[in-house]
Amino acid sequence: MTPQPLFRTPLAAACSALLVLAAGNVAAEEYPVRPVRMIIGFPPGGATDLVARIIAPKLGETLKQQVVIDNRAGANGTIGAELAASATPDGYNLHLGTLGALVISPTITKVSYDPLKDFSTISMAVQLQNMFLVHPTVAAKSIPDLIKLAKQKPGALNYASSGLGSPGHLAGELFKTMAKVDMVHIPYKGGGPALSDLLGGQVPIFVAVISTGVPPVKAGRAVALAVTGAKRSTALPDVPTVAETPGLKAYEASNWYGVVAPAGTPQTIISRLNKDLTAVLQSQDVRDALLARGIDAATSTPDEFTAYIKSESAKWGKVIRAANLKPS
Description:
Helix content: 40-55%
CATH architecture of the largest domain: 3-Layer(aba) Sandwich
Largest sheet: 10 strands, mixed
Distance between the termini: 72 Å
Number of strands: 10
Radius of gyration: 23 Å
Number of domains: 2
Oligomer: single chain
Structural class: alpha/beta
Order of helices and strands: HEHEHEHEHEHEHEHEEHHEH
Shape: globular
Strand content: 15-25%
CATH topology of the largest domain: D-Maltodextrin-Binding Protein, domain 2
CATH class of the largest domain: Alpha Beta
Protein backbone atom coordinates (compact mmCIF):
# COMPACT_ATOMS: atom_id res chain seq x y z
CA MET A 1 0.00 0.00 0.00
CA THR A 2 1.29 3.44 -0.87
CA PRO A 3 1.86 5.49 2.30
CA GLN A 4 -0.52 8.46 2.61
CA PRO A 5 0.94 11.93 3.26
CA LEU A 6 0.70 12.70 6.95
CA PHE A 7 -1.20 16.02 6.56
CA ARG A 8 -4.12 14.42 4.72
CA THR A 9 -5.54 12.99 7.95
CA PRO A 10 -7.92 15.25 9.92
CA LEU A 11 -6.03 14.70 13.18
CA ALA A 12 -2.68 15.53 11.61
CA ALA A 13 -4.12 18.64 9.94
CA ALA A 14 -5.49 19.86 13.28
CA CYS A 15 -2.14 19.24 14.95
CA SER A 16 -0.41 21.14 12.17
CA ALA A 17 -2.72 24.13 12.64
CA LEU A 18 -2.02 24.16 16.35
CA LEU A 19 1.71 24.07 15.71
CA VAL A 20 1.46 27.02 13.32
CA LEU A 21 -0.59 28.99 15.87
CA ALA A 22 1.87 28.16 18.62
CA ALA A 23 4.78 29.19 16.44
CA GLY A 24 3.06 32.52 15.74
CA ASN A 25 2.49 33.12 19.44
CA VAL A 26 6.11 32.29 20.24
CA ALA A 27 7.27 34.68 17.50
CA ALA A 28 5.07 37.44 18.93
CA GLU A 29 6.34 36.79 22.46
CA GLU A 30 9.95 36.90 21.30
CA TYR A 31 9.48 40.08 19.21
CA PRO A 32 11.74 41.73 18.37
CA VAL A 33 14.67 39.46 17.54
CA ARG A 34 16.40 41.85 15.11
CA PRO A 35 16.65 45.64 14.51
CA VAL A 36 13.44 47.53 13.77
CA ARG A 37 13.27 50.02 10.89
CA MET A 38 11.53 53.40 11.29
CA ILE A 39 10.85 54.96 7.89
CA ILE A 40 10.92 58.77 7.72
CA GLY A 41 9.48 60.54 4.68
CA PHE A 42 11.90 63.47 4.87
CA PRO A 43 15.67 64.04 4.70
CA PRO A 44 17.92 64.51 7.75
CA GLY A 45 17.77 67.94 9.35
CA GLY A 46 14.01 68.45 9.36
CA ALA A 47 11.50 68.23 12.16
CA THR A 48 10.27 64.70 11.42
CA ASP A 49 13.84 63.41 11.39
CA LEU A 50 14.57 65.25 14.65
CA VAL A 51 11.57 63.71 16.42
CA ALA A 52 12.46 60.24 15.15
CA ARG A 53 16.03 60.56 16.39
CA ILE A 54 14.84 61.60 19.85
CA ILE A 55 12.36 58.72 20.10
CA ALA A 56 14.26 55.91 18.36
CA PRO A 57 17.13 55.38 20.86
CA LYS A 58 14.75 55.21 23.83
CA LEU A 59 12.39 52.89 21.98
CA GLY A 60 15.38 50.73 21.12
CA GLU A 61 16.31 50.50 24.81
CA THR A 62 12.78 49.37 25.64
CA LEU A 63 12.64 46.83 22.80
CA LYS A 64 16.24 45.72 23.45
CA GLN A 65 16.89 46.06 19.73
CA GLN A 66 18.22 48.96 17.67
CA VAL A 67 15.63 51.15 15.95
CA VAL A 68 17.20 52.22 12.65
CA ILE A 69 16.12 55.47 10.96
CA ASP A 70 15.53 55.09 7.21
CA ASN A 71 15.13 58.48 5.47
CA ARG A 72 13.13 58.23 2.23
CA ALA A 73 12.51 61.84 1.24
CA GLY A 74 10.21 63.30 -1.35
CA ALA A 75 6.67 64.31 -2.27
CA ASN A 76 5.77 65.73 1.14
CA GLY A 77 6.55 62.46 2.88
CA THR A 78 4.41 60.31 0.60
CA ILE A 79 7.39 58.39 -0.81
CA GLY A 80 8.23 57.20 2.69
CA ALA A 81 4.56 56.47 3.41
CA GLU A 82 4.24 54.45 0.19
CA LEU A 83 7.30 52.39 1.12
CA ALA A 84 5.93 51.78 4.62
CA ALA A 85 2.47 50.80 3.36
CA SER A 86 3.96 48.13 1.09
CA ALA A 87 6.48 46.81 3.65
CA THR A 88 6.18 43.42 5.35
CA PRO A 89 3.65 43.64 8.23
CA ASP A 90 5.86 41.87 10.77
CA GLY A 91 6.54 44.62 13.31
CA TYR A 92 9.99 45.35 11.88
CA ASN A 93 8.76 48.18 9.65
CA LEU A 94 7.41 51.30 11.34
CA HIS A 95 6.62 54.72 9.92
CA LEU A 96 6.57 58.11 11.62
CA GLY A 97 3.54 59.38 9.73
CA THR A 98 2.78 63.08 9.39
CA LEU A 99 -0.28 65.24 8.95
CA GLY A 100 0.97 65.93 5.43
CA ALA A 101 1.39 62.30 4.33
CA LEU A 102 -1.58 60.80 6.19
CA VAL A 103 -4.15 63.55 5.65
CA ILE A 104 -3.23 66.46 3.38
CA SER A 105 -1.47 64.89 0.38
CA PRO A 106 -4.07 62.11 -0.06
CA THR A 107 -6.71 64.84 -0.21
CA ILE A 108 -4.85 66.98 -2.76
CA THR A 109 -3.44 64.33 -5.07
CA LYS A 110 -3.55 60.62 -5.88
CA VAL A 111 -1.29 58.42 -3.76
CA SER A 112 -0.79 54.66 -3.90
CA TYR A 113 -1.97 54.05 -0.34
CA ASP A 114 -5.08 54.57 1.75
CA PRO A 115 -4.07 56.22 5.06
CA LEU A 116 -6.68 54.24 7.00
CA LYS A 117 -6.85 50.92 5.13
CA ASP A 118 -3.13 50.40 4.43
CA PHE A 119 -1.78 51.20 7.90
CA SER A 120 -2.27 49.88 11.41
CA THR A 121 -2.16 52.85 13.77
CA ILE A 122 0.02 52.49 16.86
CA SER A 123 0.06 55.84 18.67
CA MET A 124 0.11 59.58 18.28
CA ALA A 125 3.67 60.79 18.97
CA VAL A 126 3.88 64.59 19.05
CA GLN A 127 1.93 67.77 18.46
CA LEU A 128 3.66 70.94 17.31
CA GLN A 129 3.18 74.30 15.64
CA ASN A 130 4.47 75.91 12.48
CA MET A 131 6.05 79.35 12.43
CA PHE A 132 6.60 82.17 9.97
CA LEU A 133 10.34 82.75 9.53
CA VAL A 134 11.98 85.44 7.42
CA HIS A 135 15.57 86.15 6.45
CA PRO A 136 16.97 89.08 8.51
CA THR A 137 17.18 91.25 5.37
CA VAL A 138 13.40 91.06 4.77
CA ALA A 139 11.67 94.35 5.56
CA ALA A 140 9.10 92.70 7.84
CA LYS A 141 9.55 92.07 11.56
CA SER A 142 5.94 91.16 12.35
CA ILE A 143 2.88 89.66 10.69
CA PRO A 144 1.31 93.13 10.13
CA ASP A 145 4.60 94.14 8.44
CA LEU A 146 4.46 91.04 6.24
CA ILE A 147 0.87 91.75 5.21
CA LYS A 148 1.78 95.33 4.34
CA LEU A 149 4.83 94.19 2.33
CA ALA A 150 2.84 91.52 0.49
CA LYS A 151 0.13 94.03 -0.47
CA GLN A 152 2.78 96.43 -1.75
CA LYS A 153 4.28 93.67 -3.92
CA PRO A 154 1.44 91.28 -4.89
CA GLY A 155 2.82 88.03 -6.30
CA ALA A 156 6.44 89.09 -5.73
CA LEU A 157 7.05 87.41 -2.36
CA ASN A 158 7.93 83.72 -2.26
CA TYR A 159 7.39 81.50 0.76
CA ALA A 160 8.95 78.08 1.27
CA SER A 161 7.47 74.97 2.86
CA SER A 162 8.71 71.42 3.33
CA GLY A 163 6.61 70.26 0.37
CA LEU A 164 3.40 70.47 -1.63
CA GLY A 165 0.54 69.76 0.74
CA SER A 166 2.73 70.02 3.83
CA PRO A 167 1.32 71.59 7.00
CA GLY A 168 3.51 74.62 6.27
CA HIS A 169 1.99 74.91 2.81
CA LEU A 170 -1.53 74.73 4.23
CA ALA A 171 -0.65 77.24 6.95
CA GLY A 172 0.66 79.59 4.27
CA GLU A 173 -2.42 79.21 2.08
CA LEU A 174 -4.74 79.76 5.03
CA PHE A 175 -2.78 82.93 5.84
CA LYS A 176 -3.03 84.16 2.25
CA THR A 177 -6.80 83.62 2.26
CA MET A 178 -7.46 85.26 5.62
CA ALA A 179 -5.00 88.17 5.18
CA LYS A 180 -6.03 88.65 1.53
CA VAL A 181 -2.47 88.68 0.21
CA ASP A 182 -0.79 87.11 -2.81
CA MET A 183 2.42 85.16 -2.17
CA VAL A 184 3.96 82.36 -4.25
CA HIS A 185 4.49 78.93 -2.69
CA ILE A 186 7.89 77.25 -3.22
CA PRO A 187 7.78 73.55 -2.19
CA TYR A 188 10.97 71.82 -1.02
CA LYS A 189 11.74 68.15 -0.34
CA GLY A 190 11.92 68.76 3.39
CA GLY A 191 12.42 71.32 6.13
CA GLY A 192 16.22 70.96 6.09
CA PRO A 193 16.69 72.07 2.46
CA ALA A 194 14.11 74.84 2.86
CA LEU A 195 15.88 76.20 5.93
CA SER A 196 19.23 76.12 4.14
CA ASP A 197 17.85 78.29 1.34
CA LEU A 198 16.20 80.66 3.80
CA LEU A 199 19.45 81.14 5.72
CA GLY A 200 21.31 81.55 2.44
CA GLY A 201 18.90 84.22 1.25
CA GLN A 202 17.57 82.22 -1.71
CA VAL A 203 14.00 82.38 -0.34
CA PRO A 204 12.74 85.22 1.92
CA ILE A 205 10.01 83.45 3.92
CA PHE A 206 9.70 79.91 5.28
CA VAL A 207 6.60 78.54 7.01
CA ALA A 208 8.53 76.03 9.09
CA VAL A 209 7.80 73.46 11.74
CA ILE A 210 8.72 75.16 15.00
CA SER A 211 11.47 72.69 15.89
CA THR A 212 13.25 73.57 12.65
CA GLY A 213 12.97 77.29 13.30
CA VAL A 214 13.93 77.57 16.97
CA PRO A 215 17.75 77.13 16.60
CA PRO A 216 18.29 79.74 13.83
CA VAL A 217 15.98 82.19 15.59
CA LYS A 218 17.89 81.85 18.86
CA ALA A 219 21.16 82.20 16.93
CA GLY A 220 19.95 85.41 15.27
CA ARG A 221 20.14 83.93 11.78
CA ALA A 222 16.39 84.15 11.11
CA VAL A 223 13.51 86.27 12.42
CA ALA A 224 10.36 84.65 13.82
CA LEU A 225 7.28 86.67 12.96
CA ALA A 226 4.67 84.42 14.58
CA VAL A 227 3.68 80.87 15.47
CA THR A 228 0.59 79.32 13.90
CA GLY A 229 -1.03 77.56 16.86
CA ALA A 230 -3.72 78.70 19.26
CA LYS A 231 -1.20 79.74 21.91
CA ARG A 232 2.39 80.93 22.14
CA SER A 233 5.18 78.38 22.32
CA THR A 234 7.12 77.78 25.53
CA ALA A 235 10.26 77.55 23.39
CA LEU A 236 9.79 81.12 22.09
CA PRO A 237 7.39 82.83 24.50
CA ASP A 238 8.04 86.31 23.12
CA VAL A 239 6.91 85.35 19.62
CA PRO A 240 3.19 86.09 19.11
CA THR A 241 0.63 83.86 17.42
CA VAL A 242 -0.69 84.78 13.98
CA ALA A 243 -4.11 85.06 15.66
CA GLU A 244 -2.87 88.00 17.73
CA THR A 245 -2.83 90.05 14.52
CA PRO A 246 -5.93 92.25 14.13
CA GLY A 247 -8.32 90.62 11.69
CA LEU A 248 -6.77 87.14 12.02
CA LYS A 249 -8.26 86.09 15.37
CA ALA A 250 -9.66 82.84 13.91
CA TYR A 251 -6.33 81.74 12.40
CA GLU A 252 -4.97 78.42 13.71
CA ALA A 253 -2.88 75.72 11.98
CA SER A 254 -1.23 73.04 14.08
CA ASN A 255 0.74 69.92 13.17
CA TRP A 256 1.32 66.38 14.46
CA TYR A 257 3.20 63.12 13.86
CA GLY A 258 2.24 59.57 14.82
CA VAL A 259 3.61 56.05 14.49
CA VAL A 260 1.97 53.53 12.18
CA ALA A 261 2.83 50.11 10.74
CA PRO A 262 1.75 48.29 7.57
CA ALA A 263 -1.80 46.93 7.73
CA GLY A 264 -1.82 43.35 8.87
CA THR A 265 0.86 43.76 11.52
CA PRO A 266 -0.09 41.30 14.32
CA GLN A 267 -2.26 42.86 17.02
CA THR A 268 0.00 41.51 19.75
CA ILE A 269 2.89 43.49 18.26
CA ILE A 270 0.76 46.62 17.82
CA SER A 271 -0.22 46.42 21.51
CA ARG A 272 3.40 45.90 22.56
CA LEU A 273 4.58 48.87 20.49
CA ASN A 274 1.79 51.11 21.80
CA LYS A 275 2.76 50.27 25.37
CA ASP A 276 6.46 50.85 24.75
CA LEU A 277 5.96 54.07 22.76
CA THR A 278 3.72 55.46 25.49
CA ALA A 279 6.42 54.78 28.07
CA VAL A 280 9.08 56.43 25.88
CA LEU A 281 7.00 59.54 25.16
CA GLN A 282 6.08 59.94 28.82
CA SER A 283 9.70 59.69 29.99
CA GLN A 284 11.04 62.98 31.32
CA ASP A 285 14.20 63.11 29.21
CA VAL A 286 12.28 62.63 25.96
CA ARG A 287 9.64 65.18 26.94
CA ASP A 288 12.36 67.70 27.87
CA ALA A 289 14.25 67.12 24.62
CA LEU A 290 11.08 67.72 22.62
CA LEU A 291 9.95 70.74 24.65
CA ALA A 292 13.32 72.41 24.09
CA ARG A 293 12.34 72.58 20.42
CA GLY A 294 8.74 73.62 21.02
CA ILE A 295 7.30 70.11 20.55
CA ASP A 296 4.77 68.47 22.88
CA ALA A 297 4.80 64.71 23.39
CA ALA A 298 1.34 63.21 22.82
CA THR A 299 0.18 59.62 23.19
CA SER A 300 -3.00 57.74 22.31
CA THR A 301 -4.46 54.30 21.86
CA PRO A 302 -4.47 52.92 18.28
CA ASP A 303 -8.24 53.50 18.04
CA GLU A 304 -7.92 57.08 19.28
CA PHE A 305 -5.23 57.79 16.70
CA THR A 306 -7.39 56.34 13.91
CA ALA A 307 -10.34 58.52 14.96
CA TYR A 308 -8.08 61.58 15.08
CA ILE A 309 -6.82 60.98 11.53
CA LYS A 310 -10.45 60.81 10.36
CA SER A 311 -11.31 64.09 12.10
CA GLU A 312 -8.23 65.83 10.67
CA SER A 313 -9.13 64.63 7.17
CA ALA A 314 -12.53 66.28 7.50
CA LYS A 315 -11.06 69.53 8.88
CA TRP A 316 -8.28 70.01 6.34
CA GLY A 317 -10.40 68.77 3.45
CA LYS A 318 -12.55 71.88 3.89
CA VAL A 319 -9.47 74.15 3.85
CA ILE A 320 -8.05 72.44 0.75
CA ARG A 321 -11.33 72.74 -1.14
CA ALA A 322 -11.74 76.39 -0.09
CA ALA A 323 -8.21 77.20 -1.31
CA ASN A 324 -8.76 75.12 -4.48
CA LEU A 325 -5.38 73.43 -4.00
CA LYS A 326 -4.28 71.05 -6.72
CA PRO A 327 -1.03 69.21 -7.57
CA SER A 328 1.50 71.43 -9.33
